[in-house]
Structures
1.
Amino acid sequence: METKQDFRFNISDFREILREQEGRCYVTGRELTGSNCDAELIIPLTQNGKVVKENVCLILDSIRELKRYHSLEEIVEIARDIIKLHG
């Protein structure tokens, strides 16, 4: 099993994950490009997520901080609150 120090995210990992996600952001489904893309953990470290390739997703860089600290379920809950407040 890989530890935090063992895993090194590289370009082949990036390409494989991008292909698996069909070129779309893990959270929003929007198209990813080289200039708007970042990698984050699916299960954040704050929730005992591991730094392994299977826990890495590609997201829009504009939501990096949100994904860094929240699970997808928490983000959906936050989005519901925003929609409820602002329509």
2.
Amino acid sequence: MRPARSLALVLSGALAAAVIGVPAHAGTGDTWKVPAQAWITIKGHGYGHGHGMSQYGAEGAARQGLGYAKIVEFYYPGTDWGQATGRVTVLLTGATGNTLEVLARPGLTIKDAATGDRTPLPANGASRWRIATAPNGDNRVSYKTTRWHGYADLQGAGEFYAGGDPISLVTPDGTRAYRGRLRAAIPTPGSPERDIVNDLTLESYIKGVVPQEIPASWSTEAVRAQAVAARTYAAYEREHPHGSTYQLCDTYACQVYGGYDAEYPASNKAVDDTRDKVLTADGEPAFTQFGSSSGGWTSAGSVSYLPARQDPYDGWSGNPVHTWSVKVQDDLIERTWPAIGNLTKIVVTRRDGNGDWGGRIVSITLVGSSGRVTVSGDTFRAELGLRSTWVTFRVAPRTAARPESRADYAVDRLAASRD
């Protein structure tokens, strides 16, 4: 779509040339001239890559009366319904180096993965137990009273569990409780490196994901939709593991997982209400990407059930990132891509064709006094910390230079985006 230009600008070429920041034409080929010192206002829609379900859109749809099944069927058209059960393994990135350290608790048991031996740990006054790499490369179990004491060496990977009760992991930022088992896994035989991994049921894992990805206080149907999307995403990633000792991670690179301490009663109920339910494609769990806000159009993903389509639910009044803007100095772009020298022109060379301004930027060229650089819309977004690639520009001169920092316009992430 091409936005209409004012009649005055159409009739007066001289006036059009005098107005800084009005593009030559909308869509592919948009060009903005940039004076020597300029303010650049970047206006955008949405937050995230735009593939799959918009979380703000799910809430907007729920407010319009849609149930969770209709919500996910809208955002993942062409998928079928199925079930997923079993366990998942999750890398815990906040653990302390190569050491697995937990608080002592009744019922705590240690297992040696090489032998299968399970040993209930004694109530010996210990406040903490840990598995750390011994000088000989084995996993060594120790406990702490007033100091650390050696307890046993394991032949393989070691894991703590407590009969189904949560275990508190000690991290540099404090303690965090997790359901299931906590394992000191060995990614490479003979290596001192350890992966700290949480092994637990899929349903328990989803309970630690959903309130990290969407507010548990939102509409019940939106939270249920998130539970289905998150469970399906986990089931898909389980078939495409991220590492040799784990399938998923606990960060935005997978989906955010906070363990037992992140759970809320309302989101736990949403997980229970949709128990085992997933979306499938060709009989396998679907790749159900999701993000904060589509801005009014989803963007095409890597599979047929992630199409670009107009999203009528994203623009409800409570969505602060449906439309947004930030203001930066041209210096910021010049420092980010110093090879261009003094920025003189911004040229959008390709958009995806969907929505305002011709849609999301696919590629953009920055022209300067020393050269030019062409980057993808994703790179432009990432380097400048923008909410999305669906943006347009307005340029105005500034009379005094002031150093610009990213903190002047950076924004906090409102919800996860599966990039």
3.
Amino acid sequence: MDYLKIYPTQTLNGEIEISGAKNASLPLIAMTILAKEAVTIGNLPDVVDIKTLLKLLSKLGASCEFSKKSVHVDTSSINETKATYDIVKTMRASILVLGPILARFGHCEVSLPGGCAIGQRPIDLHLKALEQMGAEIDIKAGYIQAITPNGLHGCEIIFDKITVTGTANIVMAAALAKGVTTITNAAREPEVVQLCEILAQSGIVIKGIGTAILEIHGTDSKLLNIKDFDVIPDRIEAGTYLCAGAITKSEITLTNVEPKHLGAVLSKLEEMGSSFTLTKDTICIHPAKEIKAVKIVTQEYPAFPTDMQAQFLALATQAEGVSIIEEKLFENRFMHVSELQRMGADITLNGHTATVRGRTQLSGTDVMATDLRASSALVLAGLVATGETNIHRIYHLDRGYEALESKLQNIGAKIERLKE
């Protein structure tokens, strides 16, 4: 098993090219199940989660040819509608195949999902919406068994809470449903927006893209003419490297990035003293000489993203004063706190709120990654800790960050991947 060894870094300097967004790629790959012909997806990140979903599609009968930064997917040969536990258990996003398989074939079996243990992410909202659209669903032996005796039909769906994968699943199902489907309280994340835009380019009429109310007009066609496309840049990867610049007080430049997707992250970094030079697709961070304390509350887009909470918590350990970070989306998303405390961080947890007292000198030690974003928080802490920091169980990190150690090495970080 691999682990990362990190030595303290004085200053970083240079450019980092941001990869395609993992969280956009996954629903877009699932969307190819609706395609009439083969589709090439560009700017695809080379991360484990992508390979897992492509493996799932291959087991369903699709042809997936993965090359550097792109994949050629042909789902016309799919002859299986059962997504088995052995793959789905490793990644919750596998549930994204439920909507498109059901819409295309009228029946499917999908294992209940697994993935990061950051909290409850129930799929009942997905199932309730599909039942409203005419699906008959039963759960037996750990599998969602769904059929549509009369096909899927449009209806009005109101999500009790915002769900990104739920919105994506129902949008894909609605594309082949009869009539008009309206989703109220839809997710507005850029990743959902791109999915809607690609479907719209494929002939599906979708009104309200980027808003909380989506209106999807189903097509009479059995499958869609989906053209080749590129995935949007990864805003969470970009935010992580901006935090690396802030915590090491280094000026670095990100390329192949979409600044407008990072509004809340840039705003909080500005509150902490950093400033930025922006172009259409680059961000240069000018870090603060003294990092200021901050108050953060995680909420759905366009508010501050839960996927950046851990990185900012690590950054707050080096801020002057007391920072308050409240996690409103996932109940178990402070598992990185105990590992940062092992490094000397002064953090107090009270329910869903972390109080971080800075500025604390962190000390390198052996720590364990507990989930994807917690992994990157430990990397940030290791950059400024004294001595050596060894981060174990980095398979979590590999699920969502492409070549993290080499990207950091290229701008001066002392980090290496080793075998246990």
